[in-house]
Amino acid sequence: MSARNKFNTTGPKIGLSVRLAETPQEIEAAQRLRYQVFGIEMGAGIKAVDGRDIDQYDEHCHHLLAFNDATGEVIGCYRMLTEEGAKAVGSWYSAGEFDLTPLKDILPQTVELGRACIHPDYRHGGLIMLLWTGLVKFMKDYNLRFMTGCGSISTLDGGHQAAGLYYALKEKHLAPEQWRVRPLNPLKWDKLTPVENPECPALIKGYLKAGAWFCGEPCVDEAFNCADILILMDITQLNDRYLQRFAPQP
């Protein structure tokens, strides 16, 4: 990836910083963290290569990393795919789960997020806010307006929680009709009893509080034992409180 538009978002009070990966070794560290979180902690059916989670999208993505400043350890990451990268690899990652045709007109202005994870010892609000600040800075540098990506809901209960959350969220957070997508592997609704008052995963909750939508019914991702909803955010419509918080510092 091009080295242009490097940036460093610091958190002096918490000793953490966020920036784009600059070396293959830093990307490899992120891949090891991803396997630790997704493969070991969550039990996802992904193959490890030397203890790393790797797929064909990695070489075409920008990698946003969070570091412990004292140790240099990679403790959080996002993988970011732009239209240029999607064309190079042959598709958007989420196209494997959803028919993205309704989004075709906005995809040139979009960054797709994936493989978001944080080391278990650092799962507090400060780090995710630093990562989101870095994300907004990246989008502004690349003149991107929309962010999309999959938000995951566990299906270890058979999908009842995912069904309940869909019904709970759709009244206030469903995307405008023209941007609603169809899942390629939908929930089997006739076999589900939607959970009342379902718990919303923290990452999805954070996106929705910031002003994001979700684009329709979930898609079952059997490899990751979850159902994914496609998140879409227009950063020109970002909640004012979050816009001020994420504004890059001069």
Number of continuous helical runs? 6
CATH fold-level label of the domain at 78-249: Aminopeptidase
Q: Could you say what the CATH architecture of the domain at 78-249 is?
A: 3-Layer(aba) Sandwich
What is the overall silhouette?
A: globular
Low-confidence stretches: 1-6
Encode the helix/strand succession as letters. Answer: EEHEEEEHEEHEHEHEEEH
CA distance, first residue to last residue: 25 Å
Determine the fraction of residues in helical runs and give it as a percent range: 25-40%
Fraction in beta strands = 25-35%
Rounded Rg: 17 Å
| Mean pLDDT across residues | 91
How many β-strand stretches? 13
Brief write-up:
This protein is an alpha+beta fold and 250 residues long. The protein has 6 helices and 13 strands.
